[in-house]
Amino acid sequence: MMRRLAPMLMLVVALCISSAARAQFAGLGEPTTEAERAFVQQHADQWSQLTPEQRQTVLQNYRRWQSMSADERGAAQRNFNEFRRLPPQERQRALDALRQWRSLPEAQRQQLRQAYGRFRSLPPARRDQLVQRYQRFQQLPPQQRQRMLNNFHRWQQMTPEQRGEVRRQMNQMEGNHTPNRPRRRRRFWNW
Fold first, then answer.
1. Which run of H or E residues covers position 15?
2. How would residue 26 be classed by pLDDT, with cut points 50, 70 and 90?
């Protein structure tokens, strides 16, 4: 979602501010090409009401727009239209998520992009399974969610040998169940 949201919000800023942009410019945010000057002239009244920083932002977004391929522009336009159709509360959530994304260090954003790429490369059935598991996790009471997260962190800190031992014990417990008693496979997450 974040990958789709970034170009969409870039377009939102460009279009909202550009439709609020018009003619006189001073230093920062000054158009440098004929196309930029024509763009500013076209929106002279709004441009005169912008601060120099806002003008700079508008020009940067205009330059990004101009550098996009037709396909990228089409995708950005579709994202923008989709964004505008969202209820106000959803739009605000999207903007908040974008602010949060932009506040992350670049290294963490890169990790998240890679994780998302791995997720997208999974077969659809596996992606659906993961989404369902996450939804079930979100519905757990807060204490149980925290216990699962703590156990997950412990799992991550284990050596491969320790993990193998836990798996062996879990498999052994599965094999020792009685027909009238449910399996205790998830026992690991409760220790």
1. helix 2-18
2. very low
**DSSP 8-state class, residue 19:** T
Residue 176 confidence class, pLDDT cut points 50, 70, 90: low
Q: DSSP letter at 180?
A: T
Asked whether residue 74 carries a pLDDT value surpassing 80, the answer given is yes
CB within 8 A of 147, min separation 6: which ones?
189, 190
CB 13 within 8 A of CB 61: yes
Q: Which one-letter DSSP state was computed for residue 20? A: T
Q: Which residues contact 185 (CB under 8 A, 6 or more apart)?
A: 170, 173, 174
If you average pLDDT over residues 47-51, what whole number do you get?
Answer: 88
Domain range annotation of the chain: 2-121, 138-190
Q: Which residue has the tokens 């940067």?
A: 60
What 3-state DSSP class applies to 100? Answer: helix
Q: Fill in the DSSP letter of residue 143.
A: H
Structure tokens at 156: 């991550």
pTM of this structure: 0.50
Rounded to an integer, what distance in angstroms lies between the CA atom of residue 112 and that of residue 102? 12
Phi then psi for residue 144, to 5 deg, are: -70, -40
Neighbours of 38 (CB within 10 A): 10
Residue 93 sits at the vertex; the CA angle it makes with 91 and 99, to the nearest 5 degrees, is 105
Chain length of the chain: 191
